[in-house]
Specification:
Chain lengths: 117, 116
């Protein structure tokens, strides 16, 4: 099956710093990747849709200047949490769907746990 | 309004028994897909099963089957012959397909615990 990786798997940072999370599709190309946030014991909430070569589409209530998304290639999307604060501590998960595939599956990365002190 | 509703925050089942996890949905899109994912404590999302709105038959994948009742807008997951390794969070999700988007909307999840 298709594999999506995320790096780092966990990160601890100080308040006010920026953190970059990478999402890579290892064995397929994806024009679209998705970024989700999951608070403890809660569901996944879609933050934004990342489109290769164009601007990301953010969900209502998600600050685009705080959560910068770049989808520079068909296998890589990055999420940068700028000026992170403790309330940004969460589990961030990306997903991708292979290009040109009729399959209905969307492949998820293993997630990145962010803790802001 | 909630698009995906999972009313069971937690469920217990004995090993080897079957269990049904409930999911109801709300959409005006005639074309949609319904998904179930498993999330173990490690955090990764594992795809289990998919049902398209136009599929005539209920989807099945091994021990997983989806009881799709379109008129009731329900898509319950049935796990047969439960195993200890089935203990995890289970999320129902929907994709509205008329707008050519892959965006998934998730329910709040059900925590399943399988006991010996």
């Amino acid at each position: 099956g298709a594999v999506v990786s995320q790096h780092p798997s966990w990160v601890i940072c100080k308040s006010g710093t920026s953190v970059k999370i990478e999402c890579r599709s290892l064995d397929f190309q994806a024009t679209t990747m998705f970024w989700y946030r999951q608070f403890p014991k809660q569901s996944l909430m879609l933050m934004a849709t990342s489109n290769e070569g164009s601007k990301a589409t953010y969900e209502q209530g998600v600050e685009k200047d705080k959560f910068l998304i770049n989808h520079a290639s068909l296998t890589l999307s990055t999420l940068t949490v700028t000026s992170a604060h403790p309330e940004d501590s969460s589990f961030y998960i990306c997903s991708a769907r292979p290009m040109g595939l009729a399959d209905n599956e969307q492949f998820f990365g293993p997630g990145t746990r962010l803790t802001v002190l | 309004a909630q698009k995906i509703t999972q009313t069971q925050p937690g469920m217990f089942v004995q090993e080897k028994e079957a269990v049904t996890l409930d999911c109801t949905y709300d959409t005006s899109d005639p074309s949609y897909g319904l998904f179930w994912y498993k999330q173990p404590s490690s955090g990764e999302m594992i795809f289990l099963i998919y049902q398209g709105s136009y599929d005539q038959q209920n989807a099945t994948e091994g021990r997983y089957s989806l009881n799709f009742q379109k008129a009731r807008k329900s898509a319950n997951l049935v796990i047969s012959a439960s195993q200890l390794g089935d203990s995890a969070m289970y999320f129902c999700a929907m994709r509205e397909e008329s707008y050519n988007t892959d965006k998934l909307i998730f329910g709040t999840g059900t925590r399943l615990q399988v006991f010996p």
